[in-house]
Structures are given as C-alpha cells and as structure tokens.
Input
Amino acid sequence: MDSPIQALFPWFAAALGLAIGSFLNVVIHRLPRMLQAQWKQQCAELEGRPADPEPRYNLWVPASQCPSCGHRLRALHNIPVVSYLALRGRCAFCGSAVSARYPAVEALTAVLFAWVALTFGWSAAGIGGLILTGFLVALAFIDADTTLLPDGLTQPLLWLGLLANLNSIYVPLLQAVIGAIAGYLALWSVYWLFKLATGKEGMGYGDFKLLAALGAWLGWKMLLPIILMSSVVGALVGVALMVLARRGREIPIPFGPYLAAAGFLVLLFGGRIAPLFGFR
Output
C-alpha cells in the first residue's frame, strides 16, 4: 500500500510544476535578452569604447509587467493558469491580449512534473527527474524562439546529471561520464562531417552540449535512442513545415526541442527502450 507521501507526491509535483512553469516563462523570455546585453557589452570592450548604459535587467528585476502598457502586475495577476483564465487572456489594466503560451508552458510543466512523479514516486530519481524536466522545458522553448541553447542552462544541467549519478540514481557514474563525452562528440562529429561535405553548418554547439547533458543523466546507452527519436521527429516536422507552411530550406530549424522531448521520453521509458537496441 502506498504511503501518504507517495500518494500525494504527484499532486504536489503538479502544483509545483505550475509554479515552476511560471518561473520558466520568465527564464524563456529574459535569458536570451540578458545574453544579448552581455554580447553588446563584450563587443564594446573589444572595440575599446564604453558600453551603452543599460537598465538593470535579470531574472528578478524588473518585476513582471504587461508587455503592452508596461503596468506592473500584481500577485493576483500572476497565479499560474488561473489568472489567465479569470482575465480571459487579457491584461487587467489595458485589456490587450496576453499570449496563450504563458499558461501553456505552466500547464505543460505541471503535466510533465506529475508524469515524472507517477513514474518514479517520492525518491531521489523522482526529484532528479523534476529538475531535468524543468531544464528541458526551458531549453526547448528558448531554442524554438531564438535557436539558442544557453551555456547557462546546458552546462549546469550536465554537472547536475553527473552529481545525480554519483550514487547511480539513473546509471552508474562511469556510464554517465562516458555518456557526457560521447554525447558531445557524437553531434560534434556530425557537425564537422556535414560542414566538410556541404560547407554549411548543420547545427549549433548548444546541441552538442545538450546531448552531452542528457548523456550525463541517462548514460551512453540512451544516446542512440535519443538521437534517432529526435532526428526522425525533427525531419518529419521539417518536411511538414516546408510543404504546408512553405518554409524555405535555408531557414534553420532548431534541433533542441526534439532533443529535449526525446530525452524526456527516454527518462520515463528508458528501461523499455534499451532492450530494443540490445542494451540491458
């Protein structure tokens, strides 16, 4: 019989997912802009000129505000999903439409957190799975928006995966270390083979780092399933965009969301997927 903690954990994880999803919306929106500000400052330093003064801007400052009228939002306006529904998707001050993606990210994170909790229960693997899932959601949406996979997320994710497997939470530490190395080198090799053959860059370095992080969490045996799943789905979506949306081949398609989705599925179903590739 499940303990009360085990029974309540999925509900707690769902509620936590709503709150974390709200914070992830901030990360998804602000982190790329923070990187742009850093790049501008670095360019100014290289050119030997003073950087243009910028207002303080990070994940905490300024407070959340309406993108249309700039009015600071109150706590009641920031309740995940509920505030959006209560306000019918509009700003409480100016009435302008608010993107439906905000509640979508919150709801998605809640569902994924609950799924992880149901799969692993109240355990180190369950808590680690929530951490990995939160990072993957943020990385997927940032890459979809900007084709960037920030080092500020991929590098901590890699080290967290190695730390999680110090006690073999998901795989033995040796498999995790080899997974991190092989994950990076696998896509790095594809990148250079494609570039030597075509003279073009087929993917970014952030993809190498994300796969390395997934290898650190899930081990080297899961790299092939992740690559195959993400490549097949990415190819199908790319063809669909070219046919249905008439998107040109020269427009890059971010690979990070497919890596993140494949990594999440392998996290949950790796035990069933591994035998299909001859692993135990």
